[in-house]
């Protein structure tokens, strides 16, 4: 067993700390991680549908349906019938949802800045981490 100073262990520790810090920021916005990711996705893909959100989150249709009901009840999203398919609804952000996404993005931007501040060569570290990620994906 490797010690806590192995590269993979340090990456894991950073990821857990980052997740904790982001979740604290999201809690202040009265959001959980799935809600924040959903809002960001809808912001980037206005008019998306529930199926696409389920795919990106890796959640069941029923789970996403409940998540969307909460966001809709909080007036962060709106659903409109698709002009092409009356069984499908297009989902977009409301003005309040757009404001919330700006706040969520700001929380992620702060985290990115804090990480970059600690590095002397952030672009090189990014390239190395991407190389590790690509190598691990190939092994799956």
UniProtKB/TrEMBL annotation:
It holds the Pfam family MarR_2. Keywords: Transcription, Transcription regulation. The keyword Transcription applies. The keyword Transcription regulation applies. It comes from the Bacteria. GO terms for molecular function: DNA-binding transcription factor activity. One of its GO terms (biological process) is response to stress. Residues 4-138 form the HTH marR-type domain. This is Regulatory protein MarR. The lineage of its organism: Bacteria, Bacillati, Bacillota, Bacilli, Lactobacillales.
